[in-house]
Specification:
alpha+beta, single chain, 15 helices, 2 domains, 12 strands
């Protein structure tokens, strides 16, 4: 009941982190990463969606995705790709990149991490790294995974490229980068687990900072959280998903008329309040189906449905299969 809405969503969609590569660059360089959907199973097994991030530990560079202007990166900066876009890191804009393939990433999936890579004069050397003093730029690269289905409104609310300049990232982020470099150069027991948790914290902090800097006229799930009325309605839905909510009750709780509340909710979220509630209930149910041994009837009651039949129909409409069959597909591997 006391959890905030953003934390509630992140816990339910199973946010997971992994640091994978320690990359040292020299002279001119440009490298392109594949789309997250092509490599998700290699980098975050069991997750539907993979987002790559890069922490600049030394030097500078540029980050770019198709259709958007490149972004200058400096030491201490972090750049993330929440939608899993293929992207390019380079020493200068508009350079022809070396393309890392999904096959190569799958081939290195079981090697000890963070895995060192040296890149210089257009030559990629897996398993090698340049001495710190020789590298012009050093990046620690990793992935964040989460579920997109049945319902995850956060990813759509984030930009395709999320840049956190060092000046806005806070002192703790610089310590995260320092820790990632230290673990990369001198691996210790438990180091991977430490870096995974730090990656997850970094993503949450990035989402919060993006929320704090949204323009006043922004819409979307994060903007809805910030809104006085819609944020309160979302908190109520997340805190008490099993309650018999209606548009009238929610509007009364947040102090708005029914019509004004409905219009405001749709403006921010892009869907009606009752559809959001139904989607969120199914998202909660999917987690219970995956992570517990509760019977389907018990899960139906837990998330606010009066009968197993009603719940099963709603689940099938959103997910495409009945709850029992979906649970079996998630545990069969």
């Amino acid at each position: 009941m006391s959890r905030d809405t953003l934390s509630d969503l992140l816990l339910t969609v199973r946010l997971r982190g992994a640091v994978f590569y320690y990359v040292s660059f020299k002279d001119q360089w440009s490298a392109q990463a594949p789309e997250g959907s092509e490599i998700a199973e290699a980098v975050i097994p069991g997750c539907e969606h993979a987002m790559e991030y890069h922490m600049i530990a030394k030097g500078s560079g540029w980050a770019a995705i198709s259709g958007e202007p490149p972004v200058k990166l400096a030491v201490g900066d972090i750049v993330m790709f929440p939608h899993g876009d293929s992207h390019v890191l380079s020493s200068a804009p508009d350079m022809e990149p070396f393309r890392l393939t999904a096959d190569w990433i799958f081939s290195t999936r079981n090697l000890p991490k963070p895995f060192p890579i040296a890149y210089h004069h257009g030559v990629l050397e897996p398993g090698a790294k340049l001495p710190v003093e020789e590298a012009n730029t050093i990046a620690v690269c990793g992935f964040l995974g989460c579920d997109l289905k049945p319902f995850n409104p956060l990813i759509a609310a984030l930009p395709r490229m999320l840049h956190l300049p060092a000046a806005r990232a806070g002192d703790w982020v610089s310590r995260v980068i320092d820790q990632a470099v230290a673990e990369s150069n001198n691996p210790r027991p438990g180091g991977s687990a430490v870096l995974e948790r730090l990656s997850e914290m970094m993503f949450v902090d990035a989402a919060r900072r993006y929320l704090e800097n949204l323009p006043e006229d922004a819409t979307g799930w994060l903007a809805g959280l910030r809104d006085q009325f819609i944020g309160q309605a979302l908190a109520l839905i997340h805190q008490m998903p099993d309650k018999s909510w209606s548009i009238d009750i929610l509007a009364h709780e947040v102090g708005m008329s029914r019509s004004a509340f409905f219009e405001r909710f749709v403006k921010y979220l892009g869907l009606p309040p009752m559809q959001y509630l139904a989607n969120w209930r199914i998202q909660l149910a999917s987690r219970l189906l995956r992570e517990t041994n509760l019977k389907v009837a018990a899960i139906a009651l837990e998330v606010g449905y009066e009968s197993e039949a009603t719940f099963s129909r709603a689940f099938r409409r959103l997910v495409g299969s009945p709850p029992a069959a979906w649970r079996k597909s998630q545990t069969s591997f």
